[in-house]
Amino acid sequence: MKTEVKRMLLALVPLLVLIVLLSLDISIFGSYSILGASQVALLVASGVAVLISMVLYKTPWATFEKAIMVKVGDVSSAILILFLIGAISGTWTMSGVVPAFICYGLRIISPKIFLLTACALCAVVALMTGSSWTTIATVGVALLGIGRAEGFSDAMTAGAIISGAYFGDKMSPLSDTTVLASSLNKVGLFEHIKYMCFTTVPSFTITLIAFTVLGFTHGGEPTSEMDIYSSTLRTWFNITPWLLVVPVITVLLIWKRLPAILVLALSAAAAAVAALIVQPDVVRTIGSGVTESSSARIYFAGTVEMIYNSVSLDTGVAEVNPLVSGRGMLGMLNTVFLIICAMCFGAAMEGGGMIADLSRVLRSFARSRAGLVGSTVVTGTALNGITSDQYLSIILTSNIYRETYEKEGYEARLLSRSVEDSSTVTSPLFPWSSCGMTQATILSVPTLVYAPFCFFNLLSPLMSFLVGLIGWKIFRRKPA
Predict the structure, then answer these.
(1) How far apart are CA 318 and CA 323, in angstroms?
(2) Minimal CA–CA distance to 215: which of 105, 120, 101?
(3) Which of 464, 453, 471 is nearest to 378 (CA)?
(4) pTM to 2 decimals?
(5) Is residue 478 domain-resident?
(6) DSSP structural state of residue 424
(7) Domain for residue 68, yes or no?
(8) Do strands 325-326 and 311-312 pair parallel, antiparallel, or not at all (unpaired)?
């Protein structure tokens, strides 16, 4: 017993080192810590784990090398998917698909249903872009100004924006967190998204009802800001319903159950073709910055640039510029960098047996289906607060519980869903986390002020536990 306690305490040492380093990173670099500081913290913590294991437990270095190869190999497809997501970010934006959704969405805003519309619009944009941060920093900022002009409190509007953005991010096949959670647990991307519907749709439905009720208690008039956004986008892009063919093709490919990599690749290709046909001036503008030779070479350069590079347009309206920028493949490198370093940390912890030591302790709190799901949700939420990063929370929670779910005979998709229901959506609720600081800075609303109105983010972990308690659509094979 003393040996087990000693091993558990030693297993906590690398995690504590990581927490201390991440705290320093966040305090010094803020939301920019993801650009490199967090990765350094992960590698240092990995070194501590390896040192403890090699010195105290005589674990050979070859064990860690093998574990790193396995861990990085597990996310190799996720890395390719992330690069394709970057390509879609550029092609969907520059082809006018995303601007079209925004323009059509702004048409339906009405004061009485402003909060409901704000939440739904952010959900659609995040679903199309796969990024809650981009949605909040673009459409969210516009909606905050509109809500303020119509007499809604910043807290309510911010809560509606963040709730919708994180719903869309969570359910989007273009989201890096969604790809990460499914890939880590070896669950098909679209299978993972489909299974999340059993907890996510009820949570979002309740959220929409809540914002509808709140909206009808307020009045107001539309503002000219909506017209500024819409007119600027229409000046730079040819907004036509034909652009909706691209997302329709994407949905059909998903419905045909094609592999995620193939779906994303074909979707990016369709958007690139649409850009050449519908937005030739935009493609030419991008390509002219690369070469000034023949038209054919300019269009070729513009197409390639929007696929691999982070591109943007200067519309002359500062608030609109973020709406017309795409990440490209290069824009995903920081996320890939973080994932690889996190995989090294997970490999160091697993190779030294530390993940198993922590799992044994947590398993004692998970003696039933509800207990297991509840423990996963609590751990994912807690790690968001401890590590200040949703990516690390997803990775660590998955690593800690994977073996337990396997031994208890539960499907891997239950773990991937429980992780998303906690690690992904609760991240903006902590003032010191990268997500919390970023959203508070972008919207100029303190985290603790908007948090009570982030109904979706608050409901998701509770709904996950409730569904786990009921056992709805949760299947179990004979325990190993």
Answers:
(1) 10
(2) 120
(3) 464
(4) 0.69
(5) no
(6) I
(7) yes
(8) antiparallel
Question: How many separate domains does the chain show?
Answer: 2
Whether the Cβ atoms of residue 247 and residue 128 lie closer than 8 Å to each other: yes
- The runs of H, that is alpha helices, within 237-368 are 245-255, 260-278, 280-288, 295-308, 333-351, 354-363
| Residue showing tokens 């608030």 | 319
Residue pLDDT, tens place only, 316-369: 877 677 767 777 888 878 778 877 887 788 788 878 888 777 777 766 666 788
Residue 451 and residue 163: Cα distance in Å, rounded? 10
Tens-digit pLDDT profile for residues 146-201: 676 566 888 899 999 999 999 998 998 878 889 888 988 888 888 999 999 999 99
**Among 348, 309, 341, 308, residue whose Cα is nearest residue 34:** 341
Alpha-carbon Rg for the chain, nearest whole angstrom, is 23
Report the alpha-carbon distance of residue 163 to residue 205 in Å, rounded: 11
User: Does 350 lie in the same domain as 303?
Assistant: no
Dihedrals φ, ψ of 432, to 5°?
Answer: -95, 0
Contacts of 219 (CB under 8 A, 6+ apart): 111, 112, 150, 151
Domain that holds residue 30: 2-73+332-470
Same domain, residue pair 30 and 117 = no
